[in-house]
Each structure stands twice: as structure tokens, then as C-alpha cells.
């Protein structure tokens, strides 16, 4: 089995505090893996470490995307290779219209890959189609990115960016938090539309609910910075029933 | 007459303001200027100014010589005037220009400081009068050189019902002060005083303003933004005075600056001096670094550091640009901001 994302014995600290402590995980192309775990287990840290957030220091282990060492790359270089993180708390960017932000990002990625910039008409056509499929009002894309948006709107905007940038590896960090049931359905449909044989996803969530909409191939339990159990979708249901207590004991 | 103008007129360097003068403590000229270069000769100007594309009458002041006009005035159909102070050669220049917008007239004044040679020491004085019901929008683009020394002082006198709006855009100089003093009578008169200073290397820019409200119900809205990198130094001094009896004054001042390097410096002194009871006055002053989280967010989406930084700093300054009313001037200002902030790429 050839993994798209391969993480081996990963250790990472935040402000000198060990958070990830020997995490090993392989996600093959075409698969959706869920990471579940109690608060403080290191779920969000994993997303930030893989995308290179300053302040998240790798102290051991490796992570590769298509065999390439992620930790040797800057955050923007990782993005150009196809890494995308849907933030748990998307940032507000005053003064930058959403469309300007995404076009700048898209063209930067294309430039990094040696591709031509997307033409303005082609970009707008893509944006209109994508916005319609996610039920986003096109006028909203002319407003400053995420400024004054509700939690649900911000999450929808993350999925919109994801669809526009068409990344190869998607990390969804608590994408279900702050969503009502209608928004959850729309966001999930957007994510499911991106499932493909040459793409893979890591879905980080505290609750099983999201996995009713985005069906994972594998479920992993993260506790105290390590994967302590792995299984099929049934593992998520078991966690929902029984909680994380027994895994907390395993980790200790 | 400013102290620099006095020093140029008399050759007496002790007239220059020094750091011991409270209002000049961050813009010391006496310690900087050991000699004053001689007055330059008249020069022919063959270049176009930064606002050339917007047309209108051109008022040229090459090397301090006011050329072929006594004053600038408005008109019934919002005419555009390009006022170009061109320092074509090294030398000390002291000059005064009168701008008078009469009752019911309007004017868009596009003012540029164009340094074409090192070694210019310029003192520019503007006497600006806006009569009852007159409207003036003044855009200043200060394109000095790294070695320029410039002091510009505008004394603005408004009549009741007058409207005055100003935006100063500057990339700084060796030492540069752009000062605006507004006599605000209230009674329907309104003032907008904005500015953006974008400084790199060892440049210095001082934006100083004094707005004195003397009558009922005056409105002042002030917004200055700065971005400093390298070893640059930005100075903001904003004083709003509300005199006894100037009740129902509504005055708001904001100064916000980004420091992009360890060695750059911002000195800010916002002041509200209020001698009336029933007023609404507020000021906000922030100085900080670019938001690291926003920077990472943009980089995660694929933007290299310099692209993300330029985008976020442009957006930061954009609020000042957006408040420019004249559309053509706003576009030129936006392009100027993009050019200044794209320098690092």
C-alpha cells in the first residue's frame, strides 16, 4: 500500500511542552481518515505541525507527502504541493476581499508549480460555479474575507477556498464546530464532492456526528500525542457510546 | 513663517527647531543641518507630475519659484488643480502659495513634492482658505528623496459650512515634516484629515496636525496609518483643541501603525484638549506588528511570506485610500501604496 501522507514517530512541542509524542499514521491516496480524541490530545497540533505553523516545533520523526519531506518546506511551499488545512477558527482578513485573497493564493500556488496564472474570466467563472454549489451568495465574496461572517459562514468559506484551490491533501480541523444541521449538510456535501482516487483527507473531530456525513475509511484515536487505536467506521460509533476514558488510560 | 523659513531667509541656523522644542522633539533640524545650501536658480521642469493623468490646471513651483500665478482658486464644477513643488536641484527653498476656495466653489487640489536631486532643503507654506459652503479636497503626495529635507506647513482657515478633506501620502525623506493647522469654526463646517506614511531604510516622516474647534457643532474625522521598516522613523502628532463654547463638537482621531522591523520606530502623540462640556471626542492609537496568525493563514493558502505581507499591509493602509473622494486620485493613491509596499519583493 502506497501512502500519500506518511507520518512516522512524530514528536512536536508547543512552547517547549511536548504535545505529539510518537505519532505514526499513514493515509493512502483516495482514503478519508478520521482523527478523534479528547480535548488536549494534540488533534489541532497535528494539523498545524503538518502545515508548518510557527511556534509548533518538530522535535523528532518524519512526515512525507508523496515521499517528499514536508518539514523541509515552508508553509506556502507545502500548500503549493497540495496541503490544505481547514482552520477550526478561520482568520478574519480586514481590507482583503475574499475573491482577491483566493486569487492571490491560487496564483501564488500556480507560480510555485511553474504554471501560468489563471485568467480573470476563468477565475470568476470557477468562483461563481463553486459558490453556487456551496450556496454562498456571490456578493459575500466581494466583502473582506470572513470579517463579520458567522461561524457557519466562515466554515463554508473554508470549504469554498478548498474547492477553489483544489488541494491534494485536505485536513479538516473541527469543521463541524459551530455549524447548524443545514450548514453541516452543505459543508459535508462540499467535502464529499472533493473525494477522489488521487486525493486524501484527514478529518479531525471531537464528535462522531460529522462522520455521519463524511464517511471515513479509517478512524484513529489520538490520545496524549499518539495514535492509541485504529479501526473502521464502527470505532467512531463505539467512541460515541463509551467515550474516551479507556483510551486516556492506555495513553497514561 | 516657519522656523526653517526664517533660517533660510536670514541664514541664522539658530532659528532652526531642535529637539528641545516640544513640538519638534522627534524632528530635529538644528542637529541635522550644519549649513544651509544657497538658494537655487530657476529651473525648467520637463517631467510630468504624479497626478498628470487627471488633467486640470497645472501650477508649477520649480525650485521655489511660483511660476505665473498668484493663487489657486476653486470653481463651480469641482475643477482639479495640480500643484507641483519641484526641487530640481540642490539648494534651500522657501515658498508660499495661497489657495482660496470662495463661497459655493469646490476644488480638488492635487499637490506633489517632487525631489529630482539630492541636497534640497525646502520650506513650503500654504495658506488655504475655504469660504462659506466651499469644498476643498487636498491630496498631498510627497515623493522626496532619501536625502531631502522638507517642511510643509498648511494653515487652513474655514468659514461656517465649509468642507475640508485632506489625505497626505508620504514615503518620507532624510527629515520631513508635513504639518496642517486647521481653524475650525464649527457651524456646519466639517474636516477630514487623513494620512499614510510608508517608510523604509532610514527615512523619516512627521505628520503633525492641530485642529482648533472654536464654534458650535464642528465635525473632525482623522485617520492616519503608517508602515515602517528598516531603520525608518514615523512621527505622528495630532492635537485637537475644543475651545470654550465649542459645544456639540464631534472629533475623532485614529493613528495606527505597523512596525515591520526591530530597528524601525514610531513616535506618536495624540492629544485632545477640551475646554467645552458637551462634546464627543475620541482618539485611538495603536502600534504593533503584523498579525502572525493572519500571516500564517495566508501562507497556508500558498502565498510566500513577502506576498502575504504585502497583501496584509496594503489592506491595512487601504482604509485611508478608500476615504479619498476623487476617484482618479484614489486610484493613483492605491497604485502608489502598492508600489511602496511591493518594494521588498
Count of alpha and pi helical runs of chain B: 4
What share of the residues of chain A does DSSP label as strand, in percent? 25-35%
Q: Give the biggest beta sheet of chain B.
A: 9 strands, parallel
Mean pLDDT across the residues of chain A is 94
Order of helices and strands of chain A: EEEHEEHEHHHEHEHEEHH
Strand order, main sheet of chain A: write it out. 6-7-8-3-9-10
Helix content bin of chain B = 10-25%
CATH superfamily of the domain at 3-92 and 167-251 in chain A: P-loop containing nucleotide triphosphate hydrolases
**Radius of gyration of CA atoms of chain A, rounded to a whole number:** 18 Å
**What is the general shape of chain B?**
globular
Please describe the topology of this protein.
The complex is a heterodimer of chains A (252) and B (345).
Chain A: E1 3-14, E2 17-28, E3 32-36, H1 43-51, E4 56-65, E5 68-69, H2 75-81, E6 83-86, H3 98-112, H4 120-133, H5 151-165, E7 169-173, H6 181-192, E8 200-205, H7 209-213, E9 218-223, E10 226-231, H8 234-242, H9 245-251
Parallel strand pairs in A: 3-8, 3-9, 6-7, 7-8
Antiparallel strand pairs in A: 1-2, 1-4, 4-5, 9-10
Helix pairs in contact in A: 2-3, 5-6
Chain B: H1 3-10, E1 57-62, E2 72-73, E3 80-87, E4 91-101, E5 106-115, E6 120-130, E7 135-143, E8 149-158, E9 163-170, E10 175-184, E11 190-199, E12 204-213, E13 219-228, E14 233-242, E15 250-259, E16 265-274, E17 280-288, H2 292-300, H3 305-322, H4 327-341
Parallel strand pairs in B: 1-3, 2-4, 3-5, 4-6, 5-7, 6-8, 7-9, 8-10, 9-11, 10-12, 11-13, 12-14, 13-15, 14-16, 15-17
Structure description:
The complex is a heterodimer of chains A (252) and B (345). Chain A has helices at residues 43-51, 75-81, 98-112, 120-133, 151-165, 181-192, 209-213, 234-242, 245-251; strands spanning 3-14, 17-28, 32-36, 56-65, 68-69, 83-86, 169-173, 200-205, 218-223, 226-231. Chain A is α/β, with parallel strands linked by helices and 252 residues long. Chain A has a domain at 3-92 and 167-251: 3-Layer(aba) Sandwich (Rossmann fold), CATH 3.40.50.300. In chain A, the strands form two sheets. A six-stranded mixed sheet of chain A has the order 6-7-8-3-9-10, sandwiched between helices. Chain A has a four-stranded antiparallel sheet with strand order 2-1-4-5. In chain A, α5 (151-165) packs parallel to α6. Chain B has one domain. Chain B has helices spanning 3-10, 292-300, 305-322, 327-341, and strands at 57-62, 72-73, 80-87, 91-101, 106-115, 120-130, 135-143, 149-158, 163-170, 175-184, 190-199, 204-213, 219-228, 233-242, 250-259, 265-274, 280-288. In chain B, the strands form two sheets. A nine-stranded parallel sheet of chain B has the order 1-3-5-7-9-11-13-15-17, with helices on one face. An eight-stranded parallel sheet of chain B has the order 2-4-6-8-10-12-14-16. In chain B, α3 packs antiparallel against α4. Classes of the chains: A alpha/beta (252), B mainly beta (345). The A-B interface holds A 51-54, 74-76, 79-80, 83-85, 87, 90-96, 100-102, 104-106, 108-109, 112, 144, 161, 165 and B 291-294, 296-305, 307-308, 311-312, 314-316, 318-319.
Amino acid at each position: 500500500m502506497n501512502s500519500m501522507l506518511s507520518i512516522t514517530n512524530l514528536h512536536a512541542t508547543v512552547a517547549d511542552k511536548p504535545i505529539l509524542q510518537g505519532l505514526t499514521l499513514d493515509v493512502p491516496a483516495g482514503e478519508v481518515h478520521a482523527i478523534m480524541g479528547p480535548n488536549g490530545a494534540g488533534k489541532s497540533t497535528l494539523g498545524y505541525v503538518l502545515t508548518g505553523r510557527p511556534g509548533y516545533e518538530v522535535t523528532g520523526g518524519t512526515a512525507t507527502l508523496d515521499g517528499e519531506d514536508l518539514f523541509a518546506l515552508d508553509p506556502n511551499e507545502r500548500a503549493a504541493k497540495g496541503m490544505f488545512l481547514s482552520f477550526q477558527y478561520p482568520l478574519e482578513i480586514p481590507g482583503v476581499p475574499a475573491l482577491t485573497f483566493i486569487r492571490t493564493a491560487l496564483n501564488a500556488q500556480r507560480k510555485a508549480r511553474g504554471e501560468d496564472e489563471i485568467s480573470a474570466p476563468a477565475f470568476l467563472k470557477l468562483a461563481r460555479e463553486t459558490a453556487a454549489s456551496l450556496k454562498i451568495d456571490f456578493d459575500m465574496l466581494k466583502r473582506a474575507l470572513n470579517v463579520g461572517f458567522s461561524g457557519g459562514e466562515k466554515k463554508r468559506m473554508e470549504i469554498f477556498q478548498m474547492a477553489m484551490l483544489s488541494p491534494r491533501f485536505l485536513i479538516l480541523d473541527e469543521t463541524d464546530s459551530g455549524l447548524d444541521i443545514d450548514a453541516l449538510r452543505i459543508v459535508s456535501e462540499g467535502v464529499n464532492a472533493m473525494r477522489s482516487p488521487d486525493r486524501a483527507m484527514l478529518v479531525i473531530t471531537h464528535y462522531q456526528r460529522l462522520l455521519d456525513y463524511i464517511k471515513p475509511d479509517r478512524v484513529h484515536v489520538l490520545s496524549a500525542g499518539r495514535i492509541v487505536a485504529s479501526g473502521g467506521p464502527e470505532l467512531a460509533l463505539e467512541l460515541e457510546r463509551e467515550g474516551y476514558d479507556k483510551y486516556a488510560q492506555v495513553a497514561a | 513663517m516657519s522656523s526653517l523659513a526664517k533660517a533660510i531667509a536670514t541664514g541664522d541656523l539658530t532659528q532652526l527647531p531642535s529637539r528641545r522644542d516640544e513640538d519638534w522633539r522627534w524632528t530635529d533640524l538644528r542637529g541635522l543641518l550644519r549649513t544651509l545650501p544657497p538658494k537655487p536658480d530657476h529651473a525648467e521642469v520637463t517631467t510630468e507630475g504624479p497626478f498628470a493623468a487627471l488633467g486640470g490646471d497645472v501650477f508649477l513651483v520649480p525650485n521655489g519659484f511660483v511660476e505665473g500665478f498668484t493663487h489657486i482658486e476653486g470653481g463651480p464644477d469641482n475643477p482639479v488643480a495640480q500643484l507641483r513643488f519641484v526641487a530640481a536641484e540642490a539648494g534651500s527653498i522657501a515658498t508660499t502659495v495661497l489657495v482660496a476656495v470662495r463661497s459655493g466653489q469646490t476644488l480638488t487640489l492635487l499637490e506633489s513634492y517632487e525631489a529630482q536631486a539630492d541636497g534640497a532643503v525646502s520650506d513650503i507654506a500654504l495658506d488655504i482658505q475655504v469660504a462659506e459652503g466651499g469644498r476643498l479636497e487636498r491630496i498631498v503626495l510627497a515623493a522626496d528623496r532619501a536625502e531631502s529635507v522638507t517642511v510643509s506647513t498648511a494653515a487652513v482657515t474655514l468659514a461656517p459650512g465649509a468642507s475640508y478633506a485632506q489625505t497626505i501620502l508620504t514615503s518620507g525623506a532624510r527629515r520631513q515634516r508635513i504639518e496642517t493647522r486647521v481653524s475650525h469654526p464649527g457651524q456646519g463646517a466639517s474636516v477630514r484629515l487623513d494620512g499614510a506614511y510608508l517608510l523604509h531604510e532610514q527615512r523619516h516622516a512627521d505628520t503633525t496636525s492641530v485642529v482648533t474647534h472654536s464654534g458650535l457643532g464642528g465635525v473632525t474625522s482623522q485617520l492616519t496609518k503608517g508602515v515602517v521598516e528598516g531603520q525608518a522613523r514615523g512621527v505622528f502628532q495630532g492635537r485637537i483643541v475644543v475651545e470654550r463654547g465649542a459645544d456639540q463638537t464631534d472629533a475623532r482621531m485614529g493613528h495606527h501603525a505597523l512596525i515591520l522591523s526591530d530597528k524601525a520606530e514610531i513616535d506618536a502623540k495624540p492629544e485632545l484638549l477640551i475646554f467645552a462640556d458637551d462634546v464627543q471626542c475620541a482618539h485611538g492609537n495603536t502600534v504593533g506588528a503584523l498579525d502572525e496568525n493572519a500571516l500564517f493563514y495566508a501562507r497556508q493558502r500558498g502565498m510566500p511570506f513577502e506576498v502575504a505581507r504585502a497583501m496584509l499591509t496594503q489592506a491595512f493602509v487601504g482604509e485611508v485610500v478608500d476615504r479619498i473622494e476623487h476617484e482618479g486620485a484614489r486610484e493613483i493613491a492605491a497604485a502608489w501604496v502598492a508600489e511602496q509596499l511591493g518594494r521588498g519583493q
